Amino acid sequence: MSALELLAALDRDGAEVGVANGRLRVGAYRDVLTPERVAALKTHKAELLALLGGLEPDEQEGHDGTVPRGYVFVDRQGQLEEVRRAIEASPITGFDTETTGLRWWKDRVRILSITTQAGWTFVIDVFAVDVSPLAEALRGTRLVAHNALFDVLFLGKLGIESARLSCTMVLSQILYAGLGVEHGLRGALRRELGLSIGKDQQRSDWSGPLTGAMKSYAAQDSKHLVALYGELNRKLADAGGLERVIDLEERLLEALVHMSRNGMPINPDRYREYVETARAKAERLLLEMDALVPGEVPEEYCTRNGKNKNVPPERRDKINWLSPEQMAWALRESGVNLGYTDRGNVSTDKDVLASADHPLAGLILEWRKAKDLPTRFGDALQTAVVDGNLYAQWNQNKARTGRMSCEKPPLQGVSHEGDLRRAFEAPEDYRYVVSDLSQIEVRVLAALAGDEKMIAAFGTGLDVYRQVAGKVLGISAEGVTKEQRSVFKTIVLGKIYGLGENALRKKLEKTLHRAVSIVEVREYSEGFFAEFPGVEKWRNEVAFGFDAGRRETRTWFGRRRLGVTNKPQAWNTPIQGLAADALKSIAAEVHERRDEVPGLKLVGLVHDEVLAVVPEEHARVAAGWLTNLMEGVADRVVNGDAPETERVPIKADTSVCKSWAEKGE
């Protein structure tokens, strides 16, 4: 038997093995130390001393000093051979990293913590040891991490790539989607295994000397991952029907690793120019707003500003326009009539200000828009832009519907109308290829409802909102005015999101810039349902299920949401969830088939858009390839095994662009 097998056998029988004063120490009953084991201890003495030399049981709270319950600290190259053997013998291996910071493109790995299925935990000091000899062994095992995207991006900097990767955080999100439970490692361990682990070293300086407490902290983060993975998989299997979702999310994880490494090409100078221009405009508008406020600012507001750390010193004797209360005071003093929220609070939202015929209200709207860009995207220049690429943080499964999101910066918030998209420029001799699933949510609604008229409307290839308006109003699609199209686009999307009559009324008033009555909303809605009875039937069936106590939704693909609290959620979640299944399936397949287009790189997934970068000479081929791939994959996901006559046509609109802004121009 190997040294590790010997230690495992001794531990199983209650023996304690360690190193003291450079000598191997074994504490065990005589019947445990059989002649064969004594001989093996002598044979493997040198290996055991090398292996256990880093073990520090006295610093491990709650452990009795035996190896499987503690950890092996690895800071010498010679120890890696036993680590490699342990990984090779482990079908599933948990791992975690401790890093000098959170930016994988800039910061370094200090600790690589590995736990095998047999229970061995190795805490490897990457500053002291070259871990490249472990690369092949790690490719041969299933790697399990919590928030795996973060750890794998850092792992890649060590020259280690994963062949099979699972994320226990994503599994938790799939299992408990919609319930609002804690998906972090500590919450998951407490819920699934009844374990409590500390976080006292979470903010430690991992670039300096390692203390025993830091090593123990690093060990605990990987120590229970294999058990957590097993427990989550058991519960997922019991839930039933989630196999395709799990497989998709694991395929997507591999795609996100590569997409994150690629980054989104950007022109830093142009990006900086747009941010600074917006910042200067916001500051100018702030002064203009101050000038329109009559009289002195009440002392009580100045006092509050002085206590507010978000208010700079030069503005502590002025209105804090970020405070809704102070903004409301300034507007009232200026003669602006304000509305109220449903809870009785004064409202200064966009719709209220847009309807106010006063210069101050207009300035506030302009200021809010101008300050949004530097507030949300300004920091990215210092933190996320390196060598002409922007590296964002992608959230695979954070939304309860299964939708992806992005933060630091929030790329889904980059407006189609603003200038910032122009800063996302492809490098010289390259082009962006950008494709979006056209009206995918409405197409999903048509598929779920099986509404023949809506499916036929998509089959014409004409604008679906014009066709809906024409059918309801009894006129040709060509005769539909811009206003009529806007009305029925709002109605259709309102039905997707489960908006009530009052919410629809507000949406229509915002769209049409005029007053809209509840009677008018009701007429539009009744006309829509009369023309598309399949949609009404589907909504009624979902509502009946909710009234009967059903609090779970599932997409055809299998994705579920638990704890549905109202009918709008019950209507909206299957639509959003299936659209998410389609986009995620597309991303996974783009990654897996990327070699079909020379030089193609997946760089972004924003709403229903897929962004890739490709050498200019292959751009046209890439556009056709991406269009066909997206339409084919989305068709399989959205339509499932429906017969040809009942399938909703899927359309992807694709552009070849020098900058992201050119999409759709």
Overall pLDDT confidence: 89
The CATH homologous superfamily of the largest domain is named: Ribonuclease H-like superfamily/Ribonuclease H
Categorize the overall geometry. globular
| Rg for CA atoms | 30 Å
Indicate the structural class: alpha+beta
- Main sheet: which strands, in order across? 3-6-5-4-7-8
Fraction of residues in β-strands: 5-15%
Structural write-up:
The protein is an alpha+beta fold and 665 residues long. It folds into five domains: 53 residues, no CATH class; 172 residues, Ribonuclease H-like superfamily/Ribonuclease H (Nucleotidyltransferase, domain 5); 105 residues, Taq DNA Polymerase, Chain T, domain 4; 126 residues, Alpha-Beta Plaits, CATH 3.30.70.370; 124 residues, Orthogonal Bundle (DNA polymerase, domain 1), CATH 1.10.150. Helices cover 48% and strands 13% of the residues. It is built from 26 helices and 21 strands. The strands form seven sheets. The chain has a six-stranded mixed β-sheet with strand order 3-6-5-4-7-8, with helices on both faces. Helix 6 packs across helix 11 and helix 12 runs antiparallel to helix 16. The radius of gyration is 30 Å and the shape is globular.
